[in-house]
Amino acid sequence: MKHQLFTLPLLALMFFFHSTTTLAASSPAPAPSSSPTDIIRILKKAGGYTTLIRLLQTTQVATQINAQLINSNAGLTFFAPNDNAFSNLKPGFLNSLNDQQKNELIQFHLLPTFVSMSNFDTLSNPVRTQAGENPDRLALNVTSSGNTVNMTTGIVNVTVGGSVYSDNQLAVYQVDKVLLPRDFFVAKPPAPAPAPEKAKASKKKSADDTEGPAGDDSAAVSVKQRLVWGPLAVAMVVVAAFSSW
Fold this sequence. Notes:
The chain contains 8 helices and 6 strands. By secondary structure, the chain is α+β, with helices and mostly antiparallel strands.
């Protein structure tokens, strides 16, 4: 009797743990949360973008793109030149650019909105890129006909290739040439001449004002001397004449 009283609770406890373990094993695991979009991972998976990846990392534009995709609802469009496009540049061109120009070059390949292949004809020229809005130095003009999209910067004409990646937030398109802005090739306007120093002009004017009254005083003294010596000379002549008589 005592043995049965001890065994029954033990069996019940074992059944409880077995049931709990079975239920846990049969429950589906929660779906992993989707990882944030990573432009470097996208380009590495596509292959053939070694130079572009290096520029994105050294300029830290890759970090900027990933942050924008998280914090903005407008999305981004990125024109990605492959390694062949960079190899067609003039030798030493990339090395001749300073850090600011390299950043500007990558930003010139970015549109601050998501544009699908069928919506390029809705863009207004010149298209604004993330490099800036200067229509003379940073102009990008887009023409679209069916599935063919062409762009011109005033320096190069570029054809948009196939889609590398699209998720309705980021669109990445391959381009056959590097987009070169006119800003790199058009001479900068000369700096405006410095304004004349007002202090020197005021000092000179003050000196002229000082000299003016002095000249007037000299002229006044000369007139007074004439008024005094004129009559005196006449009186001396008259006295001399009477004396001769």
